[in-house]
Amino acid sequence: MTAEQPSVVVGLMSGTSLDGVSAAVVRFREDETAGVGWELLAYDVTPYSDAERKLLAECLTGTTPEAYCRVNYELGAWLARAATSVIAQAGVPRDEIAAIASHGQTVWHVPAHSTWQIGQPAVIAELTGLPVISDFRARDIAAGGQGAPLVPIADTLLFSSNDQWRVLQNLGGIGNFTVVPPRGVSVGGAVVRAFDTGPGVVVIDGATQRLTRGRERYDRDGVLAAAGTPIDAAVDAALADPFFAAEPPKSTGRELFSPSYIDAFVADCRRRAPNSSTQDVLATAVALTARSIGLAFERFIPEPVSELVISGGGAKNPTLTAAITRAVAPIRVLRFDDLFFDGEAKEAVAFALLGYLHLLGRVGNIPSATGARGQRILGSLTPA
Q1: Is the Cα dihedral 304, 308, 196, 68 positive or negative?
Q2: What band does 191 get if pLDDT is binned at 50, 70 and 90?
Q3: What phi, psi does 171 have (nearest 5°)?
Q4: Of 181, 270, 320, 326, which shows the fewest CB atoms inside 10 Å?
Q5: Is the pLDDT of residue 187 over 50?
Q6: 103 Cβ partners below 8 Å, 6+ apart?
Q7: CB 225 within 8 A of CB 204
């Protein structure tokens, strides 16, 4: 394969929200003037069943070696199922697909030390008959990096603005953003920066599940939080965690914002406001995410950013979106969906790009975002 040839790659992503597998089929081609050209051919989410979600959730909180081993292989089959489905929707002949790029499911992530994603690539290769690129984070960590975030390469190559500085904010389980210069401005290691801002929807969703006793998995359209009043003292206490003041590059996950963290957050809300309602606690969780993003701008963003582009499941929550808009004013807040495509597909597209770069022998990390010693080709190839 040469750089001039168009290449179709399938990107697979299973995130911290455990909703299901996001799958995207993307055609890439090189453009001498615009850089990497791309076309999203199909996107789909294959939801996890309740039983599948339960198995994955147990892996995130600790289980037996046998269970880890079994789920690793079972998840490989679930990822293959999602890939097969989205390929059928795209209508692309199998012989045009260069590879499947699978992020898998992060089980544990220790920045600059170690990382573990499950979803056995050999199973995906066997069931689809296609080569699989996986384990994208490991090489960056081996090079002294955080192993995250990895989406900034896509933010920079695919989603930058023509004429202004832009921050692209993902609101998945964890919140993270990339500071992207306008096209034509140098994107060397000293310019493009990215890091995790803290919780995206993980605390909001976890609190919703606890306070509704499992009747609701998330606060649909932010209706409950919209009816509440944030408990500011509880937000202040949560933002005192050293993570929020730590200098980038930095990354986090369910290791910090764990079920026990969410239990403690809800308990702290109740302690500080004994008469608080479910709506008040959820409004406080929304305020935590919004204010953590506002603080990141105040502390760590000297660039002349004029717009914040939000994506991920949290971008579909109007209460959270309104809170973020207030927290970052006067910066303009835009939805990724309105500029490009369904923002839920963004991370799957990003990993498709990482797979494409791997096939061409090109670097996939941005050291200024991850803290790695240098640029590295990311991922490991499992042949068809």
Answers
A1: negative
A2: low
A3: -120, 65
A4: 326
A5: no
A6: 11, 12, 13, 14, 117, 119, 134, 136, 347, 351
A7: yes
Number of Cα atoms under 13 Å in the Cβ half of residue 108: 9
Distance between terminal CA atoms of the chain? 16
- Report how far Cα 124 is from the mean position of its chain's Cα atoms: 21
> What is the predicted pLDDT for the residue at 141?
96
Helix (H, G, I), strand (E, B), or coil: what is residue 197?
strand
CA distance 101 to 98: 10
**Mean pLDDT calculated for residue range 148-172:** 92
- Structure-token match 């690793």, residue found: 72
- Do the domains 160-339 and 7-148+345-382 match in fold? yes
CB atoms within 10 A of CB 141: 21
> Whole-model pTM?
0.86
Classify 361 as helix, strand or coil: coil
What are the sequence ranges of the domains in the chain? 7-148+345-382, 160-339
Domain at 160-339, CATH class: alpha beta
Question: What's the CATH code, domain 7-148+345-382?
Answer: 3.30.420.40
